[in-house]
Specification:
- By secondary structure, this protein is α+β, with helices and mostly antiparallel strands.
- It has helices at 3-12, 18-38, 57-75, 77-89, 388-392; strands at 96-98, 108-113, 116-120, 126-128, 134-137, 144-148, 151-155, 161-166, 171-176, 183-188, 191-196, 203-206, 215-216, 223-227, 232-237, 243-248, 255-259, 262-266, 271-279, 284-287, 292-294, 301-307, 314-319, 326-332, 341-347, 353-355, 361-366, 371-376, 383-386, 403-408.
- The strands form 7 sheets. Strands 1-29-28-27-26 form a 5-stranded mixed β-sheet, with no helix packed on it.
Length: 411
Amino acid sequence: MNESRLRELLREAPLPGGAEAERRGLAVVEAAFAERERGPREGAPVRARGERRRVSLPRLALVLAIATLLVALLLSPAGAAVRDWVGDVFTDPPRPQPGLAETPGGGRLLVQSADGPWVVQPDGSRRLLGDFREAAWSPRGLFVATVAGRDLSALEPDGTPRWTITAPRRVFGPRWSPIRGDRIAYRSGSTLRVTAADGTEDRLLDPRVASVSPAWSPYDPYRLAYVDARGELWIADTESGESTGAGIALPALAELDWAGNFILEASRTTLGLRPVKVDKLAGKTEVGTTRIGLPLPPGSEVLDAALAPNGKRVAAVVRLGEGAERTAVLLYEPRQAPPPRRLFLASGRLTELTWAPDSSRLLVAWPRFDWWLFLPVGRGSPRGVSGVAAAFTPGERGATFPRVEGWCCAR
């Protein structure tokens, strides 16, 4: 057994009687705090200014009890969580600016509100596109794909319509191919369909798929990853219709993303990466059958996850454990050993994250305070924006917090 492993075992080993000492110490602290909140007893003498305060034996015992408790907590396995919690309590979030004056790092946002999608310019100015349920950027931000019932449409960012097609069933999750931008994949009911970016050549790709949006290859303009109704992950050539199976996807899959040399699979309890090998000369894409697991805190729940556009990092929003709700933003480096780096921890629920087009920062939603957080993944300070819901549903009290559909575009 090497020295580092021995230290790890000693650090995780529980102290004898540690749990009982923790309970006794907490009871003492709670009692002392309650006494402090009640203030001085009626009739108790009031000290004159400058008078030295005497430390009574009970108070001295309390101080010793608290010191003993802290030592026990810091040395116990549970102490790691307590140390993190103490650090979190005294880590203040950034002071938010009222309203989005500019997008940190530049670029345009596509924001879905109860009234429809908005295009937000780098200077914070915004335009409502219309009464659409979903929206997605084209790869260079020249157009926006929108969804309303069975209709799939393409609009210019100023709201000018270009074309509309009507699918056999209700449309979900349009995804624009990221290289040439000449194909849009979307779900219609339980089917997967692909159309040309001018609204022509609409055709069926698979008659039964899972309720997860597909993900385009960042290298091949026609390769598309998706999960069928049986839970199998496929890579399809959308021109020829040929498919190559890549194995069984995560059960209850919620997110599918493809960037760099990895495909990300995310469920409520698991994060996994599949390595992708691209042979450009042969025009083939090989996806590994073995999934690389990304570690999560015990008892946590994945609320959102995404690969950085450059494929070098994975970001996830996770709810931590039980009891009082806390959520954290975790950052993984797939090419390095775990554990992940924690970028931010919040009271209440952080609901979603979106990568900047240059992979330099994250936009994270914090509905409890009606905030957006812009978190740098390298150097820099986090920034906050308040009044988000009101900005995209003006004049409506208790407006639904909007969701970010995309951050465009890489230079």
